[in-house]
Specification:
Elements: H1 18-22, E1 29-32, E2 37-41, H2 48-56, E3 62-66, E4 75-78, E5 97-105, H3 111-118, E6 125-127, H4 129-134, E7 139-142, E8 147-150, H5 151-154, E9 160-161, H6 166-181, H7 187-207, H8 209-218, E10 219-226, E11 234-241, H9 247-266, E12 270-278, H10 284-287, E13 291-292
Helix pairs in contact: 7-8, 7-9
Length: 303
């Protein structure tokens, strides 16, 4: 017995115009949202939709739950890689589905949170500048959920630009990759390194926003080289940039890591660094040895 995904007809057997229509779409295009649904439990609701099913009465156990009209998003965004949408050059396509994620308006957030969203500092939201400029509201892709739609359905939709440039779409692709590829780190790392650093950075923003913004702009990502990701005993902290960083930035990182070092040593974790790595000159072979952790404000799945 094969996969239920099998059975895609050869390209020439598809209805006329389907493949040509699919050529219009790229990853990051917005479309009118399909009906979103998921398999959940009315006995143990974990979100607003399943809670509503539970409150209605008469629903028990596991079931398919369709997002009701009053909660349904107006837009969705294509998360599938562009080359997998129309599968150019493939005589017999093998991928009948495209993944889409909901697009939501988060203008109800306070101004501080909105600022973080616009700078893509909230990992599961990706700001959609072109859609926000043309439609009322502050629109983001919500990467906590995605759903397959058949390509024949997608071909009947109209693509809407959610980004203003190819570079912005590339950043969206990187955000999607990071959502799947971010490393799992052990609790010792979370307790002695990641959380304290994030808290220190939050305090810096509260006390000296100008310096916090400068550090955020100068440091593209941070990383570690550890003897073990899940049960580290020794690790080095690396500060990655695309050029020279200011003395103020270096001093803040040095002080922050020194504080980590003292506390972590009590828990049996040895920390070295920070090592400042300029990607314009840092050896690629050395960079590939590192565990990249994104920007300091980024959240890990187990944080």
């Amino acid at each position: 017995m094969g996969s239920f995904v099998d059975g895609v007809p050869a390209r020439e057997l598809w209805p006329a115009g389907i493949w040509e229509s699919l050529d219009r779409f790229v990853q990051g295009h917005a479309i009118a949202a399909p009906a979103f649904s998921f398999y959940g439990s009315a006995n143990a609701p974990l979100n607003s939709v399943s809670a509503e099913f539970a409150d209605r009465g008469g629903f028990t156990g596991e079931m398919v739950m369709q997002v009701p009209e009053e909660l349904a998003p107006r837009w969705a965004i294509i998360t599938t890689a562009t080359c997998d949408i129309a599968e150019p050059g493939v005589k017999k396509p093998k991928k009948p589905f495209v993944q889409v994620a909901p697009v939501v308006n988060i203008e109800h957030m306070d101004s501080g949170q909105q600022g973080h969203v616009r700078r893509n500092r909230i990992g599961h939201f990706v700001y959609l500048p072109a859609l926000s400029a043309r439609r009322d509201g502050l629109w983001v892709a919500d990467l906590r959920y995605d759903q397959p739609v058949e390509k024949s359905w997608l071909a009947c939709q109209e693509p809407v630009n959610a980004f203003e440039s190819e570079a912005q779409r590339d950043q969206f692709g990187k955000a999607l990759a990071w959502a799947r590829d971010r490393p799992a780190m052990g609790q010792a790392f979370i307790d002695h390194v990641q959380r304290p650093l994030q808290l220190a950075f939050e305090r810096l923003f509260a006390e000296n926003k100008e310096l916090g913004t400068r550090i955020d702009e100068e440091v593209s990502e941070w990383a570690v080289e550890a003897d073990s990701r899940l049960n580290p005993e020794r690790l080095a902290i690396f500060v990655i940039s695309g050029g020279e960083v200011s003395q103020a930035c270096r001093e803040w990182w040095q002080i922050a890591v020194d504080e980590l070092r003292e506390r972590a040593a009590v828990g049996g974790l040895t920390i070295t660094g920070p090592v400042f790595a300029d990607l314009s000159s840092y050896p690629a072979a050395e960079y590939l040895k590192l565990t990249i952790l994104g920007r300091l404000h980024s959240e890990l799945s187990n944080s």
